[in-house]
Amino acid sequence: MNQASHTRVSRTARRQAEVEDSPARLARHIGKSLLITLGSGILLLLLCSLISYFSSDPNRLILPLGLTVSALTALIGGFAAIRLHGHSALICGLLNGTAFSAVMLLLSLFFGAHATGYPAWVSCLLHVGFLLLSILGGYLGLPKNGTKRKKHPL
Predict the structure, then answer these.
(1) 113-153: per-residue pLDDT in tens?
(2) In this structure, is residue 105 part of a structural domain?
């Protein structure tokens, strides 16, 4: 009887380990980190719009503040992705950066000519840069001492 319960526990633990590393779980965590990414981007945009509003010449601040918000948003997204999933900084940062770039691309297609004032090749370089910043955010989110920290409850 004791051995049967031991076998049952090990099967349950094995199933739980398989479920923890499943692609569906990874997609759920990347979706949550994308929501955190977009939420932080919205908050940063609101903060930068207040800074622009109270400046003497808001037109000169729009471009640098917009690029700064996009870069910080990508960095925060990579950080959130590794904190939620906790396995591979490269994979989490890459997936979150790709999702963030896809959302930005869809928004730029939706808004058309008003989205960016850049040529297509500059826009592509910016998206690659945001992807790299998301990967960097994933590496910055790794625990420092090699031990796993408690994951975010989301």
Answers:
(1) 666 667 777 778 888 888 999 989 888 888 777 555 555 55
(2) yes
Q: Domain count of the chain? A: 1
Residue 151 lies in a domain: no
Distance CA 83, CA 24 (A): 17
Model confidence pTM above 0.85 = no
Render the chain in DSSP notation, one character per residue.
Answer: -HHHHHHHHHHHHHHHHHHHT-HHHHHHHHHHHHHHHHHHHHHHHHHHHHHHHTSS-GGGTHHHHHHHHHHHHHHHHHHHHHHHH-S-HHHHHHHHHHHHHHHHHHHHHHHGGGS-SS-HHHHHHHHHHHHHHHHHHHHHTS-SSSSPPPPP--
pLDDT digits (tens, 9 = 90+) for 78-112: 888 888 877 778 888 888 888 888 888 888 777 76
**Structural domain contains residue 45:** yes
Instruction: Name the residue range of residue 104's domain.
Output: 21-140
Q: Which residue in 21, 68, 25, 27 sits closest to 45, CA to CA? A: 68
CA atoms within 13 A on the CB side of 66: 12
